[in-house]
Write a structure and sequence with these properties.
Low-confidence stretches of chain B: none
Distance between the termini of chain B: 48 Å
Strand content of chain A: 5-15%
CATH architecture of the largest domain in chain B: 3-Layer(bba) Sandwich
Shape of chain A: globular
Helix content of chain A: 55-70%
Strand order of the largest sheet of chain A: 2-1-3-4
Largest sheet of chain A: 4 strands, parallel
Number of domains of chain B: 3
CATH superfamily of the largest domain in chain B: FAD/NAD(P)-binding domain
Helix content of chain B: 25-40%
Number of strands of chain B: 22
Number of helices of chain B: 19
CATH topology of the largest domain in chain A: Rossmann fold
Distance between the termini of chain A: 78 Å
CATH architecture of the largest domain in chain A: 3-Layer(aba) Sandwich
Bound molecules: flavin-adenine dinucleotide, iron/sulfur cluster
Largest interface: A-B, 43 and 53 residues
Structural class of chain B: alpha/beta
Oligomer: heterodimer
CATH class of the largest domain in chain A: Alpha Beta
Number of helices of chain A: 23
Strand content of chain B: 15-25%
Largest sheet of chain B: 10 strands, mixed
Radius of gyration of chain B: 23 Å
Number of domains of chain A: 3
């Protein structure tokens, strides 16, 4: 038997026994479960467990342990692994640093590759869209309709339109992400207003492509990698010094891939950019000139992708920024850092679970007496808006980038 | 006094196989086991139903093993799995040690439904097993089947029972009665009733493994064994994709085998005169295994060791040769010539041969009893081997997670549906009790009702309770409460159950404890001593420290 035939014979047995050898990288990810001492902290803190109970979602430790102890049985986790919102709470509370969200991604990738029949069909649809369009959503067919929708939003919010610009050699690449590009266009527009106000030399991409996070979350690693590499090329061609985004998910994912693929530039969330690069002094004086003075009681919602996947400091910045705005009073919700249920693509196929997770946030928001929730992520915004609306609540939701843009002095 | 055609002593792989064979041939059988089914050597073995890996120079044994694999596939496929195995070669001299292995193995590969021995390039080997030492020059690849030793023994015992045998655990044979050189019966101490009991028989099969010489002595017969200790180091999960075989420091073969949800690193082989009952793995053995495996898997020391386990092989007494040269065959000794008629004993043997050993012994018993009979053990399936189990459908039907159902299937085969059915009347029995394996309450209840466990340790053998990385930290008190309810244990016995189980876990943990297992142990101590107050309770309980619990 030739070397190649021998290898193929072995692969055939491995396939039959459902043994898909871990690569070295995967082994490192899975190795983190080795330090688990079954203390149960992650289970106590997982928002999905709290919302739907252990019978439906056996919890973070179970996912990690089930997969990693006996790899050939990876497929049996398909009924629970897609219910994880990827919020990262488990990893944050774990005293032994077990990286459960990464293990979840790894299992999903195995199922995607070897048992796609076990993946929720809505995720197949989502994947097909990403593969076809390079975006998380089907793009607008008619650019005029897209512009109309944008203008309506701007009008409602009292914001002006600044045309898109692509500038080679600009300092900052503003990356709106799929949600702000295709749906919450006001977020993208607001970011441009802010950057413009502070006279930042910024550019957009000629053509946006998804950062690959949704592909990673549904297990399509190949597509995720393709998108990441495409983006890297675009970033390199523009020759920018840094990247700024307004989406929490993009922030954490771009930071991860920029490091992994050696982009050589830092990735900022808009809030970080404002505090660290523009500076509190400039922000403060800008807000002082604002005409928007109506007193407002707000509460913040912390996106998981910022606090649990990137850094908790971003939300400290959020508080600092809101503190600079005249008339704005912040009341903290007891569930400010609890997952909104919008992550991990859970809402795509298990809306009931996503909504159950959100419940705790809603009660806490109502309790603050705030009339508005502010959060620095268009996805969290959409998730919160939808749930508050369903509940018949009068509390409004603003993406924080929009909220800031509205409170800058109107120019020109 | 109860009367039996044959009494079998010992509830390991050999004894349960004999009981099954005898019962299937219509004999009235009593099996006496002083502890639990598969609680001794069998419970410590790797479960490899080998094609004859280590004894390629004994072609008749290789043939026998190969046939037995095929038989097991027919009767017990639900508790079996296949492991691909890689033997990395680090230098040319490693190849020569292969001897005629490749040829002998490949000759019989087809009947077992495995490919012949293959040679893999270093690149391909590393793709299959990236933990291998990258300096390898090639690797040898082959496949072996494994069986769960606990499940096999339990199923053999249950099947014997279904064929009318009496299976009594916790009954220790204390005397064998003879009259004019013929067996008339025996006496045993029943630890459950706390009474001496006796039974009449003309035929005794001594399947007491490494204690066989002591049983023979009870009848005034002589039996020699070469006792050989073997230890395993158990890792917390499957740290390798496939099985790995390596040459140990003195040239023996050692292995790293995926086993259920763990990996076994083994084994040592030391001539021993220690008491098999209190034996623990030594620091030397642990280090020998790690050092030997480290050459081919450099990261092995970073893996989490959860415990060690050890057993004593009852080898055929051949002396003045290395252990590895002792035949792996078995002998059946009829003690009639030395004046004890009706007693036959086993020496040697392996798990893989247990059915074959039983067949030969039962043939002899039948001949001695003057009856004609035919062995059927290789054709009739063991319980649970009947239908394929549809995991996805069952999980959906009963609202139990797929993974839980799959693990249950690996232990129970087609009984899985019967167990899940229990959750219809008791939805609360879906609760996961052991969160490492995992095991739900329904399976525990079922195991308690259908498979006669007396202790939590017995339950461990039946459902793998407490065998994961947390080593009983979270399941012990829950499972003890269930056992206490089912067996109507007193409050004191409930506490003793917990302490006993933890003590047995400690036996395996103590020798190897290091790294994360220390943090785990602190948590366990915190729960049972600080929160459960069991350290205080001990003083009032009737509990003697086990030999391995003594404070140094
Ligand atoms: C480390 C190790 C690894 C091994 N790996 C493998 C392998 O991978 N494959 C393989 O085929 N073989 C393997 N073996 C060999 C195999 O385990 C044994 O040959 C086999 O299990 C012996 O079974 P047994 O029933 O004869 O003995 P045991 O399992 O020891 O059973 C004897 C029973 O007799 C009982 N008994 C003793 N005295 C009395 C009494 N007075 N009254 C009542 N009962 C009594 C004991 O409690 C015990 O349960 C391994 C052995 C060791 C030690
Ligand atoms: S990432 Fe969040 S939802 Fe997922 S298991 Fe961890 S805590 Fe639960
Ligand atoms: S918090 Fe960490 S150590 Fe504790 S059970 Fe969860 S994964 Fe294990």
């Amino acid at each position: 038997m030739s070397e190649e035939e021998a290898y193929q014979t072995v692969l055939a047995t491995l396939k039959k026994e459902a043994i898909y050898p871990y690569t070295e990288d995967e082994m490192q990810v899975v190795k983190s479960i080795e330090s688990c001492i079954n203390c149960g902290l992650c289970i106590q803190h997982c928002p999905v467990v709290a919302a739907v109970g252990l019978d439906r979602f056996s919890g973070p430790r179970s996912i990690a342990v089930e997969l990693s102890r006996s790899p050939p049985e990876y497929w049996t986790t398909a009924d629970v692994v897609y219910l994880c919102t990827g919020c990262g709470t488990c990893r944050e509370v774990c005293p032994k640093d077990v990286d459960i969200p990464e293990i979840v991604n790894l299992i999903r990738a195995r199922i995607f590759k070897h048992r796609p029949d076990l993946m929720p069909k809505q995720l197949h649809t989502a994947d097909a869209i990403i593969v076809e369009h390079g975006l998380a959503f089907v793009p607008w067919e008619d650019p005029e309709e897209k512009a109309e929708s944008r203008d309506m939003r701007l009008e409602r919010l009292g914001l002006r339109y600044i045309p898109d610009q692509v500038v080679k050699g600009a300092d900052v690449l503003f990356y709106p992400g799929c949600q702000a590009e295709e749906r919450a266009q006001e977020v993208k527009e607001s970011a441009k207003i802010i950057l413009n106000h502070f006279k930042v030399k910024f550019t957009l991409l000629e053509e946006l492509n998804c950062c690959g996070l949704p592909a990673t979350l549904l297990g399509d690693d190949k597509t995720a990698l393709e998108l990441a590499l495409k983006l890297k090329k675009k970033v390199k061609d523009l020759g920018v010094k840094m990247l700024v985004t307004t989406c929490a998910g993009c922030t954490s994912n771009l930071a991860r891939i920029a490091e992994r693929d050696a982009w050589g530039i830092p990735v900022y969330h808009m809030l970080e950019y404002l505090v660290e690069e523009i500076g509190i002094a400039k922000l403060s004086s800008a807000f002082k000139q604002s005409t928007e003075e109506e007193p407002l009681r707000v509460t913040l919602h912390d996106p998981c992708h910022l606090i649990k996947h990137t850094s908790r400091i971003t939300m400290d910045y959020a508080g600092q920024i809101l503190g600079l705005i005249p008339g704005v009073e912040v009341t903290q919700s007891y569930a400010h850092d609890s997952c909104c249920g919008g992550g991990g693509l859970v809402s795509y196929h298990a809306g009931d679970v996503a909504r159950a997770v959100m419940k705790e946030n809603l009660a806490a928001i109502e309790e603050t007496g705030a009339t508005r929730v502010v959060t620095p992520c268009p996805l969290c915004t959409a998730q919160l808006e939808d749930s508050l609306f369903r509940q018949g609540s009068s509390v409004e939701v603003d993406d924080m980038t929009v909220f800031i843009a509205q409170r800058l002095p109107q120019e020109g | 006094m109860a009367k039996y055609d044959v009494i079998v002593i010992g509830g390991g792989s050999t004894g349960t196989a004999v009981a099954r064979d005898c019962a299937m041939r219509g004999l009235k059988i009593l099996l006496l086991e002083r502890d639990d089914i598969a609680s001794a050597t069998t419970g410590a073995c790797a479960g490899m139903i080998s094609s004859g890996l280590k004894y390629m120079d004994e072609p008749n044994i290789v043939d026998m093993c190969s046939d037995e694999v095929v038989n097991f596939k027919r009767i017990a496929r639900h508790v079996m799995e296949k492991n691909p195995i890689i033997t990395p070669l680090l230098e040319m001299s490693d190849i020569s040690s292969g001897g005629n292995f490749a040829e002998e193995y490949s000759k019989r590969a087809e009947t077992r439904d495995v490919p012949p021995v293959l040679f893999l390039t270093p690149e391909d080997s590393l793709k299959i097993e990236p933990t291998l030492n990258p300096d390898l020059i090639a690797s040898i690849y082959f496949e072996e089947y494994f069986i769960s030793p606990f499940a096999l023994c339990m199923l053999q015992a249950l099947d014997a029972k279904q064929h009318g045998a009496d299976i009594k655990t916790y009954c220790e044979v204390t005397d064998i009665l003879t009259k004019k050189g013929s067996i008339t019966g025996l006496q045993y101490f029943n630890r459950i009733t706390d009474k001496m009991e006796s039974a009449k028989t003309k035929a005794i099969v001594n399947a007491a493994g490494p204690w066989a010489h002591k049983i023979a002595a009870l009848a005034g017969a002589k039996l020699e064994l070469r006792l050989n200790k073997g230890a395993h180091v158990i890792l917390d999960r499957r740290v390798v994709n496939v099985g790995v075989i390596a040459k140990a420091i003195e040239g023996r073969m050692i292995y790293l085998f995926p086993h259920e949800n763990t990996v076994l690193l083994g084994t040592t082989a030391l001539d021993t005169w220690e008491d098999p009952d209190t034996l623990v793995a030594s620091q030397d053995e642990i280090e020998y295994l790690l050092k030997s495996m480290e050459w081919v898997i450099p990261s092995i020391r970073d893996a989490r060791i959860i415990r060690t386990m050890e057993g004593v092989r009852p080898l055929i007494p051949t002396w003045k040769i290395p252990e590895g040269d002792v035949t792996r065959g078995y002998e059946i000794i009829d003690h009639e010539p030395e004046g004890v008629s009706g007693l036959i004993s086993f020496t040697g043997g392996k798990l893989v041969m247990c059915r074959h050993m039983a067949e030969t012994a039962t043939d002899l018993v039948c001949k001695n009893l003057g009856m004609e009979s035919e062995c059927k053990t290789h054709n009739e399936p063991l319980p649970g081997n009947s239908d394929d189990v549809d995991i996805l459908a069952l999980a959906k039907e009963y609202g139990v997670s797929q993974h839980t159902v799959e693990r249950m299937r690996a232990r129970r085969g087609s009984e899985t549906a019967t167990i899940l059915e229990l959750t219809c009347d008791h939805p609360e029995w879906k609760t996961t009790i052991c969160t490492c394996e995992p095991v739900i309450e329904a399976e525990l209840r079922y195991a308690i009702r259908a498979t006669f466990p007396q202790t939590l340790n017995d339950l461990r053998r039946r459902v793998r309770l407490g065998t994961g990385p947390c080593q009983g930290t979270f399941c012990t008190f829950k499972a003890a409460a269930i056992l206490a309810e089912e067996l109507e244990l007193s409050g004191e016995d409930f506490q003793l159950e917990i302490v006993d189980f933890l003590a047995e876990r400690w036996k395996g943990k103590r020798q190897s404890i290091r790294g994360e297992q220390i943090a785990q142990e602190e948590l366990a101590q915190g729960i049972y001593a600080c929160v459960g107050n069991l350290d205080q309770a001990l003083e009032e309980l009737d509990y003697d420290l086990k030999p391995w619990e003594e404070v140094l």
